[in-house]
Amino acid sequence: MSTPTLDLYLDLMKDVLSNTIYEDPPIPADWAPSAVYEPLNRRLGVDWPSQAHTMIGRRRLDNLQFCVESALADGVPGDLIETGVWRGGACIFMRAVLRAHGVTDRRVWVADSFQGMPVPDGDSHPADHALAAHTHNDVIAVDLATVRGNFERYGLLDDQVVFLPGWFHETLPSAPIGRLAVLRLDSDLYTSTVQTLDLLHPRVSPGGFVIVDDYHIPACRDAVHDWRERNGVTEEIEDIDGLGAFWRLTPQEGTTP
């Protein structure tokens, strides 16, 4: 149940995680070359913050809150996971939502290589070679100790947070994850997106949510559509902010999401 105090806490968490409070300058990128803080870019999640703990912007944070709180309110069983976490901000926010609602029986899984993007090899999809996301590893690669430290700064590092360090195809198959209520993908690449959906989508509970942060990237979008077609997934894909998208799994008959 929402309360003014709960809403204030989670709104403040969004402001702090995206650092719209102290307005750290962005790291210039091809798509956002300015080195000067621009409020609209930060709120939209199109710049690379130099200090903020998330780059996903306000509307994708709002969407994440909606998905987690909807799953809680509707009794959708399972934990929460993000695959590809950067500095950990979205996972920190998911843990904050659980804390705000007094939820103690769900975990937040933090899955990342903690060494950036993989260099495409001969088995990688051609789209991954074209994207060459690993060339940005000087920004994207954030080590595990730093991410753990970021959780600790918010007082949210506890036994409800579980780290899965390593490449997805190596860690996810044997990870002791049961059901998932929210699956959030932020892995950019075609191959990584397909691997994550193959391994984790079957664990998402009916009525649960799948969020794709990088849906605007052609390689990621193609991976999502190819995978859904192969697996007969037909739930409507909903836009979040022109960059990310999500869908909700059909609930079990007799339940009301």
Automatic annotation (TrEMBL):
| Superkingdom, natural source | Bacteria
Keywords, in A-Z order: Methyltransferase, Transferase
GO terms (molecular function) for this protein are: methyltransferase activity
Please indicate if the UniProt record lists Methyltransferase as a keyword: yes
| InterPro entries given in the database record | SAM-dependent_MTases_sf, TylF_MeTrfase
Family matches, as SUPFAM superfamilies: S-adenosyl-L-methionine-dependent methyltransferases
User: GO biological process: any one?
Assistant: methylation
Q: This chain belongs to which protein, by name?
A: Macrocin O-methyltransferase
What does the record give as the organism's lineage?
Answer: Bacteria, Bacillati, Actinomycetota, Actinomycetes, Kitasatosporales
